[in-house]
Amino acid sequence: METVWNNVKTAIKNQVSSNVYRLWIEPISFLDATEDDNLVLSCPNFFMKKRIMANYVGLINHELCREAGRQMQISLQVQTSQQEEPAPDAAARKRRPRKTERERQLSLPGVSAQPMNGRILRRDYTFDRFVVGNNCNLAYQAAFTLAASKQSDFNSLFLLSRTGLGKSHLSQAVGHKILSAYPRERVYYMSAEDFTNELVHSIKSNSMDTFKRRYREGCDVLLLEEIHMLSGRTRTQSELAIMLDHLYESGKKLIFSSTASPAEIPKMSDQLVSRLGQSMMTVIEPPDFQTRVRILMRKAECKGLCLPREVAEYMAGELADNVRQLENGLIGVASRSCLMGEPIDLDLAEQVVKNIVSSKKTITIDSITKLVAKEFGVPVKDMVSKSRKKSVVRSRQVAIFLSRRHTGTPLQAIGRKFNRMHATVIHSINAVEKELKLKGEVFRQVEILEKKLESGSD
Fold first, then answer.
1. Which residue in 14, 19, 342, 377 has the most C-beta neighbors within 10 A?
2. CA 8/CA 72 separation, integer angstroms
3. 264 burial class (0-12, 13-18, 19+ CB within 10 angstroms)?
4. Cross-strand pairs, 156
């Protein structure tokens, strides 16, 4: 029966993508076959078992019955290297050291592993849900190789792209892949902003030694996003550079992401630029038409939507900026179809796409500046001047933030519009993002402004 199982794997390999096969089918091993036509298979962990039973058991059963020539079923077990031992006698139990509470705690079956520190990984940001095209093939292959190999030719990867093209997806997919294969690995996933805030807290609480040990001795994999947000943060850059030295020397895995290369980020220390330069640099470009179609079809499949091919092709032709715009279009189509009880067809798609495209065309940096100036009661000429008045600075920061979020204009171009340096633009965006997290006055002002921008009202 082991030969039958190997033939089944070969048949499945020809039906699924190579990354799906490597992730979910290849690790399954033959264990035994019972007299009641039940094939016993094994997989590395509970997380993988859950995914296989949820997504691929039907395909496996179909190919198994076809290959065996009769009805068969499979049983999937989690493999273990532990051998059963005879029960210890009373004297042996007394000699055995008592386990700590942490050692007694068992993993819950079916619960996916999570990073040891930082943010929680998105459950859908995995390799099998990432659509690979010519725009990102190198980045995908590099990320998968780094995640799948205990020892590889490189241990550090730098993902570079514009916003909304898949940096976060690939970065988190690395975390998922490592945790599924090696649940005890200590994976830290966070943004540069998170890292800075943690550092500041450690300085204020006089716990820098603990902070340093946590990363230098307690981190196996570091997923650090939005490196460009470190611009001008001298102390953070210095601590990160020193920490990276320790991680590099220890052979730890490091994944960075940014909208700008290290050398292009203003006010970045040569020390940190040098450390980040040791990474393999990969660029993710905007997807081409065929890749955009496949992205839409794949995301529709994951959401359980029946998306006609002609609708996907129409949307892919109109929404060409980035993956996030495609997702917004798909969500719009699905929501309108559900709420209005209409089928997903070209007419429905045209209405949704028209709103997205017209909204994008009418929202410009100039229109944002005028709207913010009116809302804050500050003249436009003051917003683009050298004025440092608090009211002017705040309105300028909000306008810069909205320009970046709603126009996709490069940071340098936004800076020129407001007569500001690239670093000032990044600082403004950071300042507004911090205020938004507090959900105070600035949060409400931005919410009102965005509704007016999207509706086209002034």
1. 19
2. 13
3. middle
4. 254
Break the chain into its structural domains and give their ranges.
2-78, 117-283, 289-362, 365-455
Sheet holding 38-43, edge to edge: 29-33, 38-43, 73-78
Which single residue is written with the structure tokens 């090696």?
A: 182
Q: How confident is the model at residue 243 (pLDDT cuts 50, 70, 90)?
A: very high
Q: How far apart are CA 332 and CA 354, in angstroms?
A: 11
Judged against a pLDDT cut of 60, whether residue 90 lies above it is answered with: no
Q: What letter does residue 44 receive in the DSSP assignment?
A: S
The pLDDT tens digits for 5-26 are: 888 898 888 877 776 788 788 8
- At 408 the pLDDT is 67
- Which H/E stretch holds residue 412? helix 411-417
Q: What is the DSSP string of 232-278?
A: T-HHHHHHHHHHHHHHHHTT-EEEEEESS-GGGSTT--HHHHHHHTT
Q: Which structure tokens are listed for 51?
A: 């995914």
CATH code matching the domain that covers 365-455, chosen among 1.10.1750.10, 2.60.40.1510, 3.40.30.10, 1.10.3720.10: 1.10.1750.10
Could you please state the CATH topology (level 3) that the domain comprising 117-283 is classified under: Rossmann fold (3.40.50)
Q: Which of 288, 276, 277, 23 is nearest to 137 (CA)?
A: 288
pLDDT digits (tens, 9 = 90+) for 57-69: 878 887 888 887 7
With a CB cutoff of 8 Å and minimum separation 6, the contacts of 6 are 30
DSSP codes, 208-239: HHHHHHHHHTT-SEEEEE-GGGGTT-HHHHHH
Give Dmax (Cα) for the chain: 86
CA distances from 267 to 141, 163, 273, 300 (A): 32, 21, 10, 42
Look up residue 38 and give its two tokens.
């039940």
| pLDDT for residue 170 is more than 90 | yes
Rounded to whole angstroms, how far apart are CA atoms 65 and 60?
Answer: 9
Per the CB < 8 A criterion, the answer to whether 1 and 40 are in contact is no
Return phi, psi of residue 362, to 5°.
-85, -20
The yes-or-no verdict on residue 451 having pLDDT over 50 is: yes
Tell me how long the chain is.
Answer: 458
